[in-house]
Design brief:
Keywords: Leucine-rich repeat, Repeat, Signal. It is built from four helices and seven strands; from the N terminus they run H-H-E-E-E-H-E-E-E-H-E. With 231 residues, the chain is low in regular secondary structure.
Length: 231
Amino acid sequence: MRLRLGRLLLLLLLLASLPYGCLLKNHEDKDDLLLATPPPVAGVPARIVPGCPSNCTCLAEETVDCGGLDLHVFPSNLSAGIQHLSLQNNQLRELPYNELSRLSHLRTLNLHNNHVTSEGLPDEAFESLQSLQYIYLANNKLTVAPQFLPSSLRIVDLAANRLSCIYPLTFGQKPGLRSVYMHNNLVNNTGLPFRCLQRLRCCHHPHLLQQPAHLRAPEFTSLRLPPPPTE
């Protein structure tokens, strides 16, 4: 019995000392070579994905995470086929049209907590993003909402900016749009396109219900509006 156990332990030690790829019998094509490669670790850039920017995480070709990298410039080498892009927690001030317009398959764009200004966000910035469904621009420095947003949008987060004006086509003519987050802005009832907001389901939070008493429609439950002026 001891002899058998000794042989078994010796065999296990020999197997453990072999390179990972040697455990596969054959890897004549690329798929087998990928199987011989240890899986990517979350938070580590996967360089086998083409078009992954430096220091970003790309665990799949359609998903790019460049969050928290102190970026001051929008990445210029993104793959045109990506669908989900996270650039949150950076220092971006503008979105260059020539770079953003290439991402025609983009479905999610997360720009939360940057320094994007209305001057750095041209009106035509999103016109080619006809697949975009989710856009997060909270905690930036926008003073005017984007004039034109894609009709494919479902969720728009513009909270915690300096918005004082919203255009009719910011939220209008978007049949799939269901949620808009606009709390902690400077917008008042004169800057709101009421008809465009009638079908929306906005975020509901008890601390955000600070709109004037004459605004009772449910679509304004997420708006932190200033009280009307007193005479």
